[in-house]
Amino acid sequence: MARLRLTGVTKCYGDFKAVDDVSIDIADGEFVVLLGPSGCGKTTTLRIVAGFIEPTFGEVCLGECNVTALPPWKRNAGLVFQSYALFPHMTVNDNVAFGLEMRRMPRAEMALRIAEALRLVRLDQFSDRLPRQLSGGQQQRVALARALVFRPDVLLLDEPLSNLDAKLRQEVRVEIRELQRKLGLTTVMVTHDQEEALTMADRLVVMSEGRIRQIGSQQDLYERPSEKFVADFVGRSTFMDGRMDGPGRFVSKGGLVVACEATGSGDASLALRPERLALMLATAPAMDNSFPGAVEFISYLGSQVDLHVRLSPQERVIVQIQNRPEQPLPVIGEQVRIGWSKSTGRVFQA
Amino acid sequence: MTVAPGWTASRFAGRIALRTAAGLSLAYILLPMVFVVWLAFFAQEIPSFPPEGYSLKWFRTIPGNDRFVTGFLLSLEVAVVATAVGLILGVPAAVCLVRGRFFGREAVNNLLLLPLIVPGIVLGIALYVFHVETEIATGWPVIGSLGGLIAGHVLIAIPWTVRLITASLVGIDRTIEEAAQSLGANSLTTFRRITLPAILPGIVAAALFGFVASFGNLEMSLFLVGPGRTTLPIAILQYLEWKIDPTIAAVSVLQILFIGGAMLLTDRFVNIGRVV
Fold first, then answer.
1. Class level of CATH domain A4-229
2. Chain B partners of A98 at a C-beta cutoff of 8 Å?
3. CB-CB under 8 Å, A79 with B179
4. Which of A163, A222, A223, B235 could crosslink B71 through cysteines, CB 3.0-4.6 Å?
């Protein structure tokens, strides 16, 4: 395993920059997730690390070695594809053996390593099966064993879970993460699924339009998004457009005057997390911000309920409340008061 | 589930219509073959209906007919060599056409299919003239040579090999090649260990179709054979100029059995239906 460093990696297709000046430093044994909507350049970045795409500018270093110009077969990277990409004409055993064969490992040692890898993914009973005789989850684990068996310097996962059904996805998620910890694998995973990203990563890289928008831990991205895109993409936010009217004072287009902790001036938007807004009862203590509004829509989600509340002709916010028996739910059209503290709203200058 | 009234009835009618159309087409294709096979067993020398009796004598005369035997052997030899050469040229050509991005790719693709489009007679005359000119220019004995005949047949095998291998290359999942490369296999090893097995059904189908196209070719071969060198279709044609007894039908039955057998045999190893 080794440290992986990308420095100023850029990939141009004509005038279009698929990846734009991406620099990431991934520590030995770290699990980093590249997260972003489709077309954001995350898969291109992964393919540059794997060696299938040569960057127009920039460097990829694996351990102490600059691998930028090396073909894929000379990099020691284990890759798991979205489609698993198992060799359909080979048994599970031969699939896993392939990487070792390419490294000219003696037969006896190879057999031990294959057995170990298959045991690791709990498929030691299936070594004589063909890929098509396995379920999706099993195929996925063969792909993982195949990528791990030759002890790669880095493990690259390209949307490895998106072809699995929801329940299996949860299991495999935990399985991959535990395996990664146990083996101390430097890992880069690409996904567009934020829940997957948040549950698996040590550190996340949010990308859009080829650029890195923010690198940080789950808390960093959620509590301190660096820009509006991140606040929108990670977790949920409702936005109000308006402007900063002096320190700590945001005025929305609809005329709401909101207390916040931001400074600055000029056009801005305010992001509010639905679960940080409160439905204020008559007896509730005063809050930094409190506005009356009418409930326009209710999503009943079981343990929680989303209220869509109109605060002004231009502004509607989503308020997420816990569903408790002692608290009667408002009905559509009911007048309520919504409150939040001044540390809740995050302001992004336009 | 509720179904709109009339929906099942119209669907049923549609299915009947489809089956009838398919059955009629199939009968239209198979009918000549049925008559050929029937004719081969007629007892009388001049084919006429109704048959006067049935006999196997036309089959018994074939082994004694030198022209048919040598014609069969020559056709076999030419078809096998032409198919092999067609594959050796067709596989790399298909790989370049599918994977390569170069100027004139479409043009090359169409050029390789041309022998299928040009009428066999035209192809034969063109090659004959070319052989004559080559022989005059260089003094090499090209006209009517075995090499010249095989080269011509390579030409008619190539469209089949290129087309069918192209189709199976397009159909394979490229990520399995990338997977092999990420596991340490260079381009050549990846092709040998991963791509080639994946397109094997296409290659077998290509070989089969190339073989059939070559084995049954008459028009082009007419211009390329030399003295004492006759392919089976030409031997059949020459026999027909003198006689119309059911021997020809018997030879055709054997040819149908031979090619049908080859198809069944290959189908046992690869599912050709998946490719063609």
1. alpha beta
2. 180, 183, 185, 193
3. yes
4. B235
Whether B114 and chain A come into contact, CB under 8 Å, resolves to no
* pLDDT at B272 (0 to 100): 57
* Nearest CB partner across the interface for B185, out of A73, A79, A86: A73
Q: Running DSSP on this structure, what letter comes out for residue A89?
A: T
A79, closest residue in chain B (CA to CA): B182
Cβ atoms < 10 Å from Cβ of A321: 17
What pLDDT score was predicted for residue B42?
81
Residue of A nearest to B173 (CA): A85
> What residues of B are in contact with residue A50 (Cβ under 8 Å)?
178, 182
C-alpha closest to that of A271 among A345, A350, A214, A219: A345
d(CA B163, CA B94): 8
Strands (E), chain A: 4-13, 16-26, 31-35, 57-62, 65-66, 77-80, 154-158, 187-191, 203-208, 211-216, 238-244, 249-252, 257-259, 266-272, 278-280, 289-300, 304-312, 315-322, 335-340, 346-349
Instruction: Give the pair of three-digit tokens for residue A205.
Output: 């890289």
Q: Is A4 exposed, middle or buried (0-12, 13-18, 19+ CB in 10 A)?
A: buried
Whether chain A has a CB inside 8 Å of the CB on B138: the answer is no
Looking at the domain A236-349, which fold is it?
Answer: OB fold (Dihydrolipoamide Acetyltransferase, E2P) (2.40.50)
**Are residues B181 and A103, on separate chains, in Cβ contact within 8 Å?**
no
Q: How far is B210 from chain A (nearest CA, A)?
A: 25
Please give the CATH topology (third level) of the domain spanning B64-274: MetI-like fold (1.10.3720)
Whole-angstrom distance, CA of residue A299 vs CA of residue A305:
6
**CB of B176 less than 8 A from some CB of A:** yes
In this structure, the strands spanning A154-158 and A187-191 are parallel
Do B178 and A85 make contact, defined as CB atoms within 8 angstroms? yes
Give the residue extent of every domain in chain B. Answer: 1-31, 64-274
DSSP lists the bridge partners of residue A266 as A244
Residue-level pLDDT, tens digit, chain B, 276 residues: 455 556 678 888 889 999 999 999 999 999 988 888 888 888 777 777 777 778 787 888 888 888 888 888 899 999 999 999 999 999 999 998 988 888 888 888 888 888 888 888 899 999 999 989 988 998 888 787 888 889 999 999 999 999 999 988 988 888 999 999 999 999 999 999 999 988 888 888 889 889 988 988 888 888 888 787 888 888 888 888 887 778 888 888 888 888 888 888 877 766 655 555
Helical spans, DSSP H, in chain A: 42-50, 92-102, 107-120, 136-148, 166-183, 194-200, 218-223, 228-233
Taking the Cβ of residue A162 and every Cβ of chain B, the question of whether any pair is shorter than 8 Å is answered with no
CB contact under 8 A, A87 and B180: yes
> Domain map of chain A by residue range?
4-229, 236-349
